[in-house]
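Module 6 notes. Inverse folding takes a fixed backbone as the condition and produces residue identities as the prediction. Think of it as a translation problem where the source language is geometry and the target language is the twenty amino acids. Below is one complete input and output pair. Work through it position by position during the lab.
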């Protein structure tokens, strides 16, 4: 093992630079150090989140691995295909929205599991939540439970009886509860980015912006990223 990897990490965090993943990073840091942050550059239009993820990782002194996957070649999502507009929240119906990236969390968790096993980390953190979310199928608890079992069967650690724990500490929380928790654990919420459109400032009207604003409003707090 190289000198860079001599310290066994306590956990691996899938870190996008958004509100949820940053709060999850704060909780993982509270659980133990050091940490490895895995950030995915998947051709997303809101590329500013990559800068925010780097800032959050630096805030916690975590090693950051940036994994490049060009999902723009797959198509099928407004987040990766510039020919598909990101709709305003008011235009989002009851089905799975066009901002869903096909199998994104399945792919991200698979890669992050490989990193966790290679580093012999006991836990893998993902900041999904199933209450205030956009209807994505890969944010549901049943998906996470199924993935954890698949990972147990597919990894050396799992076969040897040391499966990697897949932790989703925000899964049952509303956005306002996530905001309150983030403030309680002193997560650097001012560094986070949520807007799907990815301009110089949040658009305020996409589904992600509206959910974030709703969360801060219901928590009775001012969003520090808008200051």
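Target side of the pair, the amino acids:
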């Amino acid at each position: 093992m190289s000198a860079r990897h001599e310290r066994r990490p306590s956990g691996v965090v899938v870190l996008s630079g958004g509100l949820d993943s940053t709060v999850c990073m704060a909780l993982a840091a509270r659980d133990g150090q050091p940490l490895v942050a895995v950030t995915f550059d998947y051709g997303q239009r809101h590329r500013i989140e990559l800068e925010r993820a780097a800032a959050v990782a630096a805030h916690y002194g975590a090693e950051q691995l940036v994994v490049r996957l060009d999902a723009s070649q797959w198509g099928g999502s407004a987040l990766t295909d510039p020919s598909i507009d990101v709709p305003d929240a008011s235009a989002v119906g009851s089905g799975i929205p066009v901002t869903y990236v096909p199998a994104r969390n399945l792919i991200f968790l698979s890669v992050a599991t490989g990193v966790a096993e290679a580093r012999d980390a006991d836990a893998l953190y993902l900041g999904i939540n199933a209450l205030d979310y956009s209807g994505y199928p890969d944010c549901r608890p049943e998906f996470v439970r199924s993935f954890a079992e698949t990972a147990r069967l597919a990894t050396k650690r799992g076969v040897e009886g040391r499966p990697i724990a897949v932790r989703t500490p925000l899964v049952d929380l509303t956005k306002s509860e996530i905001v309150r928790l983030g403030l309680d654990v002193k997560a650097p919420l001012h560094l986070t980015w949520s807007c799907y459109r990815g301009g110089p400032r949040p658009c305020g009207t996409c589904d992600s912006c509206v959910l974030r604003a709703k969360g801060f409003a219901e928590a009775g707090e001012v969003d520090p990223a808008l200051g």
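Reference fact for the lab report: The mean pLDDT is 94.
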